Amino acid sequence: MTASTETVPAGTATGGEPVLRAQGVTLRFGGLTSLDQVSLELRRGEILAVIGPNGAGKTSLFNCLTGVYLPQQGSIDFQAEPGGSWLSLRGRKPHLVNRAGVSRTFQNIRLFNALTVLENVQIAAETRVSSGPVGVMLGLPQNNKAARSARHHSREMLEFVGLRGKESLIASGLSYGDQRRLEIARALASDPQVLLLDEPAAGTNPSEKLGLAQLIQRVNTELGISILLIEHDMRLVMSVANRITVLNFGKVIASGSPAEVQQNPAVIEAYLGSGAAEELAAAEGDAGDAGDPVIAAVPEQVVRDVVPEPAAADEAADADQAVDAEAADVADASDADEEGSK
Ligand SMILES: Nc1ncnc2c1ncn2[C@@H]1O[C@H](COP(=O)(O)OP(=O)(O)OP(=O)(O)O)[C@@H](O)[C@H]1O
Ligand SMILES: [Mg+2]
């Protein structure tokens, strides 16, 4: 079974109770509305993909969910345990969101390049230790046992993602696909309930993509972690997602099963331009291949050609977003709003 032919994964939960909920989230930067009344619900045990063209607001949404941005409106709530109390994540600092049980990876790989593979994961695992990584570095006795356990846990996570035997390599020496795996191991080190993956397969080759698709499914089924997945590779999305939410210009334009979403005219037009839905329907009729997934059937290269690559300014903005989530203060988007309106 390959990522291109597999459809909805068998045996995974699709009808669970919500674990993470965003309601009416609006985020503005000056005159630009990055997210406009966005609501979505991640159900416990599922993989929910968030797709949409470049600049649609996907990373902005992740940044709101993880405390990097403070949206001007809306609520973000997380329920760590089934039936437990709901915790508001809105305005919570990134490291506290992480501690609550929501972990993430970043669109642009952000590893400590000069550190070893093991050290990269250990730093995240040690944030669970009572006095944190500094206490561990100082060798405080009460932390020695915890540090050993963090190291053990880090090794387990590295083995889980397929990096066993590479623990002592310097992170920057890893292949691109392995660096993506390392990011996932690091995100797993804090034992999250929810994992947010921002383009985990970006820049990887087809076989690395397939391996990452399988890893994402294993994180979901074997570790029982609910996953919110941003990804441009439609084959990967269609192969792992239980449900899909589509953003365009900061708004949710569709939500449903992969089959429903990929036949949705608004989604096809968002990706391929106005009139594309009719053209594809006609072409499909001519070719007699009705039933083929429409968006999945469009080669990734075509999608990339039609959807412009992000402008340099967007890349710069993304680099800004990529401040260390562990250390970053909440960026109050209302400040940006005020500055923009001056
Ligand atoms: N810090 C920021 N300052 C100003 N504008 C921002 C900032 N962050 C995001 N934006 C803008 O918000 C919009 C949504 O950007 P975002 O990065 O969320 O899109 P995306 O869907 O993740 O796109 P891509 O697929 O290219 O990663 C874009 O117009 C972007 O320029
Ligand atoms: Mg993005």
UniProtKB/TrEMBL annotation:
Residue span, ABC transporter domain: 20-274
Lineage: superkingdom: Bacteria
Transmembrane stretches, start-end: none
Keyword Ribonucleoprotein tagged: no
Biased composition (Acidic residues): 315-342
Keywords: ATP-binding, Nucleotide-binding, Transport
Pfam families in the cross-refs: ABC_tran, BCA_ABC_TP_C
Region (Disordered): 308-342
Protein name according to UniProt: ABC transporter domain-containing protein
Classification lineage: Bacteria, Bacillati, Actinomycetota, Actinomycetes, Catenulisporales
